[in-house]
Amino acid sequence: MSVGESSLPPQPADALAAVVALRRLADQLEDAAVEQAMRAGWSWPQVSEALGVTRQAVHKKHAKRLIAAGVKLRRRGDERV
């Protein structure tokens, strides 16, 4: 899917503001979805595969926030019962 110039707002400032807003929304959606997955017992590898990034990248981006939110994080070797 490509976006042509005709689908952009006429003013560059408006188009760039839309990009910023979409990035913020995407970050918020990712934060909520990762938290939901971790609360449901997903592992870091499962989350990273779903996002298309490395386990290390998703852990680095989300671990501190999840811990602060009181999410019990699975560690390597933890078994789901």
Q: Which structural category fits the helices and strands? A: mainly alpha
> Strand content of the residues, in percent?
under 5%
Averaged pLDDT, please?
Answer: 91
Helix content: 55-70%
Q: Work out the radius of gyration.
A: 17 Å
Molecular shape: elongated
If helices are DSSP runs of H or I spanning 4 or more residues, what is the number of helices?
Answer: 3
Task: Please tag this protein with its features.
81 residues, mainly alpha, 62% helix
Indicate the topology:
Blueprint: H1 12-39, H2 44-51, H3 55-68
Helix pairs in contact: 2-3
Structural commentary:
It is built from three helices and no strands. It is mainly α and 81 residues long. Helix 2 (44-51) packs across helix 3 (55-68). The longest helix is centred in the N-terminal third of the chain and has 28 residues, at 12-39. It is elongated. The protein starts with 11 loop residues before the first helix and ends in a 13-residue tail after the last helix. The model has no long low-confidence stretch (mean pLDDT 91).
